[in-house]
Design brief:
globular, single chain, binds cobalt (II) ion, 3-stranded antiparallel sheet, Creatine Amidinohydrolase
């Protein structure tokens, strides 16, 4: 138990009685989960909840797997959405994007092609050789959420497109590798932007990863660019990392007509990979693995 003349728990170097007295150190006055909820709005998940989220994430990853296998020249993104609808039914899953937001997102998946950064809407245009496509699947299974996305190259693609595909994948891997109890949220953005900028690419800052599991988008925000979010990762935190990497400028703009599709301002290609992970006692577990 801390006494009035001890150094304050906040690290100021002052005596407790001159500093935060009578407030006790947060970790002593309440359990971690209560503190994270109160301080950051973050819901730390129980082992039972993590089991259910893992199950939802597995289904999400299986659907994504099947959709990626189907993507090829001549196939439309609407056909991918049709297959997605069918697979969601088979797995007793609800597609989280459908009717999400304002205006309601009209399809079950996002399909983001070439210069589309994210939130592309499936349509009747066939894929062609040289396209790069992100497929983003988010499902609800038994009330719990999973969220992941991947890139697919349609045949041979330009060196610039290959670069953003490779850099976004490696960015996600490097970001996941820094996750463990005690690491800070800002370390994710540092890992990604250090790497992407070393490859001459830019990191989108208008869209971020997010807490997930009990809802589609929960606190905290997980920026992929340099930032100062000093929240400490602790066991039971579940969130996505989904770096969007551009060959040119980082800025994007939202389509005025559909109000969803986000395109790069300079028309250059963009790529994204996404996983849902949970912080464990020893490090992390990637949940969105089929
Ligand atoms: N992974 C994306 C996200 O978390 C999925 C977007 S679905 C949409 O934002 F409906 F919001 F477009
Ligand atoms: Co997401």
């Amino acid at each position: 138990m801390i006494s009035r003349n001890d150094p304050c728990w906040c690290g100021s170097g002052q005596k407790w009685k001159k500093c935060h007295y009578p407030q006790h150190p947060p970790s002593l006055s309440e359990p971690l989960a209560k503190r994270y909820l109160k301080q950051f709005g973050i819901i730390l998940k129980t082992p039972e909840q993590i089991d259910k989220i893992r199950n939802a994430c597995k289904t999400t990853a299986k659907i994504l797997d099947a959709l990626c296998k189907r993507a090829a020249a001549g196939v439309t993104t609407q056909e991918l959405d049709d297959l997605s609808q069918k697979l969601h039914k088979e797995f007793h899953a609800i597609p989280a994007p459908l009717n999400y937001g304002e205006p309601p997102f009209p399809k079950t998946i996002c399909t983001s092609l070439n210069d589309v950064i994210c939130h592309g809407i499936p349509n009747r245009t066939p894929l062609v050789e040289g396209d790069i496509l992100n497929i983003d699947v988010s499902c609800i299974v038994d009330g719990f959420f999973g969220d992941c996305s991947r890139m697919v190259a349609i045949g041979n693609v330009s060196p610039e497109k290959q670069l953003v595909m490779d850099v976004s994948k490696e960015s996600l891997e490097r970001a996941i590798a820094v996750c463990r109890p005690g690491a800070r949220i800002w370390e994710i953005g540092r890992a990604i932007e250090d790497y992407a900028s070393s490859k001459g690419c830019s990191v989108v800052n208008q869209f971020v990863g997010h807490g997930v599991g009990l809802a589609f988008h929960e606190p905290p925000e997980i920026p992929h660019h340099y930032n100062q979010i000093d929240i400490e990762m602790v066991p039971g935190m579940v969130f996505t990392i989904e770096p969007m990497i551009n060959a040119g400028v980082r800025e994007g703009y939202i389509d005025e007509i559909d109000q969803w599709t986000v395109r790069t301002c300079d028309g250059k290609p963009s790529a994204q990979w996404e996983h849902t992970i949970v912080i464990t006692h020893s490090g992390y577990e990637i949940l969105t693995i089929p």
